[in-house]
Design goal:
This protein has 7 helices and 17 strands. With about 300 residues, it is α+β, with helices and mostly antiparallel strands. It has a single domain, classed as B-lactam Antibiotic, Isopenicillin N Synthase, Chain (Jelly Rolls). It binds N-oxalylglycine (OGA) and nickel (II) ion. Keywords: Iron, Metal-binding, Oxidoreductase.
Length: about 300
């Protein structure tokens, strides 16, 4: 049992359109430095689209097994796949109580063809959702680059080219003390735009303790991925987080991951290395990072190590 609190900053994005833009830029920057997490409200994504999207995902997980069997796969290389819990039950330290559906969202015209065909509205609704989530993500990246003093469009193009949708479904668990929904990890990407629905379960590690992220109606949770931490030479923080289960209700969450392209070279930006600092990481290709991340199963202590430079 951990405190559920509302200390994760909440940012009103509608104010970024008006004369309060500088205030909002500073709020986002501060939250990204201190927590690596914040929530956004008045974000411009239509509420009925979010409701439709969450409903379509819930319907997907409720489909009969035979309708989902075709995309079930434990092969990490399958771009669109459904899988459950973990395939290493006897040897894992923590058992996960989760089903996960994931697929790419860019380029949309190509990848939509491999998305689920059921429910029938899936492709249409999720395509619209992915366009809106991308818009929101790029808007937040633009505010962040303003806050960091980087040029406009800094995070456009290759740094944010690869888009991945990951839908988590956590059924009610008879004994939540024996499981987790997702183990502690940092997201390996640039930025995550998460919709956690109305059911509590997300926790963030800060100053040595876990704090709960209260579901806020019609808000998105935004978190800094490993790549933003690296590019900012540790000025922004990629915070550890996890999801817990509950015994009463199913929880469905949708993470929209904004990633660099595979061959994009990641390194601390020169303008973000202070004069009394040296770069904390060496340059690498994003695909090298992913390979290492998956071989370490996301272990947050170890996955930055091969790329670190020590002054
Ligand atoms: C993730 C994640 C949290 C949640 O998918 O990377 O951290 O609450 N999800 O589902
Ligand atoms: Ni995550």
């Amino acid at each position: 049992v951990i405190p559920r609190c509302n200390t994760i900053p909440v940012v009103d994005l509608s104010k970024a359109l008006a004369h309060d833009r500088i205030v909002i830029v500073q709020q986002i920057l501060k939250a990204s430095q201190e927590f690596g997490f914040f929530q956004v409200v008045n974000h411009g994504v239509p509420e009925n689209l979010v409701t439709d999207t969450m409903n379509v995902f819930k319907e997907f997980f409720e489909l009969p097994a035979e309708d989902k069997a075709g995309i079930y796969s434990e092969d990490l290389k399958r771009p669109c796949r459904l899988y459950t819990s973990s395939s290493n039950y006897d040897h894992e330290n923590v058992h996960l109580w989760r089903d996960n559906l994931r697929h790419p969202c860019h380029p949309l015209e190509d990848c939509i063809k491999i998305w689920p065909q059921k429910p029938t509205r899936y492709r249409e609704i999720v395509a619209t959702y992915s366009i809106e989530a991308k818009k929101l993500g790029l808007r937040i990246l633009e505010l962040l680059s303003e806050g960091l003093g980087l040029g406009s469009g800094f995070f456009g193009d290759k740094l944010s080219e690869s888009l991945l949708l990951s839908v988590n479904h956590y059924p009610p668990c008879p004994d939540p003390s024996l499981t987790l929904g997702v183990s502690r990890h940092c997201d390996p990407n640039l930025l995550t735009i998460l919709h956690q629905g109305d059911v509590y379960g997300l926790q963030v590690f800060k100053d040595g303790e876990w704090i709960g992220v209260e579901p806020l109606h019609n808000a998105f949770v935004v978190n800094i991925g490993h790549q933003l931490q690296i590019i900012s030479n540790n000025k922004l923080k990629s915070a550890e987080h996890r999801a817990v289960t509950n015994s009463r209700v199913a929880r469905t969450t949708v993470a929209f991951f904004i990633n660099p392209s595979d061959d994009c070279v990641i390194e601390p930006d020169k303008s973000l290395i202070d004069t009394d600092e040296s770069p904390a990481y060496k340059p690498f290709q994003f695909k090298e990072f992913l390979l290492n991340y998956s071989s370490l199963m996301g272990n947050p202590e170890k996955c930055l190590e091969p790329f670190e430079l020590h002054a």
